[in-house]
Every structure is written in C-alpha cells, then in structure tokens.
Amino acid sequence: MSTLNHAASFVSLLPADGRINLIGLSREELAATVAEIGLEPFRTRQIWHWLYHRGATRFDVMTTLAKPARALLEERCVIVRPTAVRDEKSADGTRKWLMRMNDGQEVESVHIPEEDRGTLCVSSQVGCTLTCRFCHTGTQRLVRNLTAPEILGQVMVARDMLEEWPTPPDGRMLSNIVMMGMGEPLYNYENVAKALKIVMDGEGISISKRRITLSTSGVVPMMRQCGAELNVNLAVSLHAVTDELRDKLVPINRKYPIAELMDACRTYPGITNARRITWEYVMLRGVNDSAADARALVKLLRGIPSKINLIPFNEWPGAPFDRSTDHAIQVFGDIVNAAGYASPVRTPRGEDIMAACGQLKSDSVKQSAAERAAIAKLIAEKEQAAGLM
Prior knowledge:
Elements: H1 3-8, E1 20-21, H2 27-36, H3 43-52, H4 67-76, E2 77-78, E3 83-89, E4 95-100, E5 106-113, E6 118-121, E7 125-126, E8 144-145, H5 148-161, E9 176-179, H6 189-200, E10 212-216, H7 220-229, E11 233-237, H8 243-249, H9 258-266, E12 277-283, H10 291-300, E13 306-312, H11 326-338, H12 369-385
Parallel strand pairs: 1-2, 6-9, 9-10, 10-11, 11-12, 12-13
Antiparallel strand pairs: 3-4, 4-5, 5-6, 7-8
C-alpha cells in the first residue's frame, strides 16, 4: 500500500446520531460548521477558546455564548474525546493512560514528568503498521489509524487528568509532546498533521513546534513534507548502522534503506546545529552495542546536525533481546561523545507499569487462543514479506 493511500484506507468515525464532532476541526472547518448551523461568524473564535483554551466538554458551560447559541450547538454538534479507562502511576511519577475511542478501540498515552518539563507520549495508530523486532507495539495487529480528534483528544484528556485547564502561560505539567507512542506517525500523516496544527495554535492549547517531536522509523517520502508543513523536531528510530542488521530490526529498512534515510535527513527542512535531528538507538546486548558499531555510527552521521539518544532496551514478555550491559553502553556513549555528538543515555521511565520506550501495547480486550494464533501468523507473514524468515 502506498504511503499516501495508507491514511485514506481507514474511515473517520462519526457520532452515530449524525451530530458534528467539533474536536479536531480546523479553524476553517469550525467556521464553516458555525455558518452551516446558523450562528454568527464571531462565534467561531469563542467556541475555539472554550474547546482548546478552557477544555470545555459541554456546551452549557460556554457562558460567553448566548443561551440560544448554546442550545443550537447542543442540537447540532457534540464534543467527543477519548476516555481514560485506566490510569496507572509509576513509582517514578510517570503516568500511563489507556485511552478508549468512541468505537471501543484503545491506545496508550504516557506522561513523563521532569524538573523542567512534562512530556506526553502520544499514539497515532491502534497497533502498528510495522514489526520492529524490539518493540512491543509491533507484536500487535494494526487495527486502524487514529483520526485527528482521537490524536488531539489524547492531549486534551491528559490535561484533564493533570487538571491543567485553562491553558497556563508557563510552568506547565504538559509542556512537550512526542509522537512516539503506538504506531508510525508518517503512515497516518494527514491526521497527525491536522491534530498537531491545532495543538500548536496560539489561541488554544498553544504548545510550540519547538516543543513537539515526531518520531519515525524512516518513512522517507513523507519526511520532507512533515518538515515543510509542520516544522516540528524530527527523531529517527535508527537502531543499526548497516542495512543487513537494520533490515532485521526495523523491517521498513528494506523499502527505504539507510542511504535513502540519510539523504532525507540531510535535507530535512530547518535542521541546524541549534536544531538537530535526534537519532534513537536502542541498546541490544551483543547485537548493535559494540565499539565498532559506535565508530560506524559516528561515520554514518557525519555532516548531519545530530543528537543520539542511547536507549537501554526495555524488556517485555517474550522479547527476543536483552539489555546491553552498563559497561557496553558507557563505552558506546564515550566513543560517540568524543566525536562531538551529544549522546545522553535515556533513563528508563515507567518500567514498573510497562510505560517505557518500546513497551506500549493496548491489551484491554483479552484474546482467545485462536486470535493469538492468528496474530502470530500475521506477524510471521509480515516478517516473511520483509525478508526476516
């Protein structure tokens, strides 16, 4: 399936009663809806303010609108957002929410608090298109893409849970967003872009593009468009320095090999020494963590403003890999640092609630033995197509 057709293959879910969900509409779409139902044009800005600055979930609280306007909105429109059906708290302060969509499908979102920021890890698909061997989400069947309101809704529900409405001017608990949850964002680009544009709007949630990072496994054709339209920070799941190994760890590499990926990164709009590409590199014991691998990584990234995140492998049930030793990670990092690249080791967060990098997987629906066998067969077929078997 082509990149452009991938997002279009999943239909948006609309309220069953035919009312219009206002969440996820662009400003232009909201203005058109306001006109269609017979309200004055200036109501658009008022409604936008209530939805995205104050976090309103009901029309009757929109007190700057006259009662007849609120009644008309209630009759013709709805405010539909995901529901947090499970809230898990880690000993380190990380919180993981199981978000249920209007059709019952579920994804996970994670809030990671730090001293100077609070980062929300947002999902873009139910399951994942890809089968990266070290990632728990990759073992889950791709069900469908999330719609723009479902992606945006994760941010809004997180702010509900953090009690962070109306939008504060500073000192936010949710200050940063990373599109690093379940799914490959660039295989759902249109919905991801629409949601992020609303998140970045200065009269609403108002999170700067400088505080948003989109992570991709390397969907090369969409990378330039993402940079040109959104100009958000880019993170790339690299994890290997040769095509031979990356073909196995990140099967999309067979379609877009390392050389093509590097070219796309060198020309990514807006990269400078002050705004670098982040390379995600999971440390797998005896697989990609040697000193030779580190030196090859330095050579590979030459000429690209870069930061390397070294990620100790976060184990999950049935995982085929082990975490690199602390010594191996230290040696690897020292080599990369000596070459002039920042290479912080990402501290695992939320491991005790399976919220760390690579551990997300929605599991609220128990599977029968037949369903588990079907999923195992699906993964085997995907791996065979990628040349892994």
